[in-house]
């Protein structure tokens, strides 16, 4: 099996730089910045999982088509191929972020009481929120059931 040493070198350099940055800024990030970091990495994993989740996924299919590769069912084929790597990434990302940036507060016995207080302050679900929920569900249902 022939490998591309330049591509491997670039990938290795990229991973080394990510680790250097992560460990060098470990103490400098606020909790909000740490949450953004986790969100960014988890959204990348979920975008890789579904064909229609990111523009670059569709570009890959178009590139394969232009090279003469015919894919019978692109959505299912993409999902099958990306399921394992994306799932592993989704499971490992929180663990890695937790190890690199451990939380400052690990024990919160008052969290359920605080959450209930905030929910009581918000009150019941409002009319506009129900409309938004219904609109989103109809949109997703139309997206799933659409032909092309």
Automatic annotation (TrEMBL):
Major location category of this protein: plastid
Organism whose genome encodes this protein: Lactuca sativa (Garden lettuce)
GO CC terms: chloroplast inner membrane
Keyword Transmembrane helix: yes
Family designation: Belongs to the SLC13A/DASS transporter (TC 2.A.47) family. DIT1 subfamily.
Compartment(s) where it occurs, according to its Swiss-Prot or TrEMBL record: Plastid, Chloroplast inner membrane
InterPro entries: CitT-rel, SLC13A/DASS
Transmembrane domains' residue ranges: 130-146
PANTHER family in the cross-refs: DICARBOXYLATE TRANSPORTER 2.1, CHLOROPLASTIC
Lineage: Eukaryota, Viridiplantae, Streptophyta, Embryophyta, Tracheophyta
Descriptive protein name: Uncharacterized protein
Entry GO MF terms: malate transmembrane transporter activity
UniProt cross-references to Pfam families, sorted A to Z: Na_sulph_symp
Keywords: Membrane, Plastid, Plastid inner membrane, Transmembrane, Transmembrane helix
Membrane topology category: Multi-pass membrane protein
């Amino acid at each position: 099996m022939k490998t591309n040493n330049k591509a491997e070198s670039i990938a290795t350099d990229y991973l080394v730089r990510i680790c250097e940055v992560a460990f060098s800024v470990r103490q400098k990030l606020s909790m909000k910045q740490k949450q953004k970091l986790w969100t960014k990495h988890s959204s990348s994993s979920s975008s890789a999982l579904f064909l229609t989740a990111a523009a670059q996924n569709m570009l890959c299919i178009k590139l394969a088509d232009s090279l003469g590769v015919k894919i019978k069912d692109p959505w299912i084929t993409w999902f099958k191929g990306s399921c394992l790597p994306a799932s592993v990434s989704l499971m490992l990302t929180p663990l890695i972020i937790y190890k690199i940036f451990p939380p400052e507060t690990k024990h919160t016995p008052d969290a359920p009481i605080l959450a209930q207080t905030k929910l009581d302050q918000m009150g019941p679900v409002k009319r506009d929120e129900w409309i938004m929920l219904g609109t989103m569900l109809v949109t997703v249902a139309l997206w799933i059931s659409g032909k092309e």
